[in-house]
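User: Structure please.
Assistant: Input sequence and predicted structure:
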Amino acid sequence: MKTNLWIVIIVVVGFLGFLMGYSTPPFMHSGMFSSEGQQAEPGAAMDQDAEEYYKDLLTDEE
């Protein structure tokens, strides 16, 4: 009985560890969990060509 309990605990902790490791990189990328304590700037940097492309999409009518 005691061995079965430890097996279940190890499997659950392993699964939760996998989920935590799988979910934290997006938060680290946004700067929420950064070690420097700096916040990431809102929005993504976009070059001029991409900005013009998206503006043209708004004005393009078929």
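The chain is about 65% helix and 0% strand.
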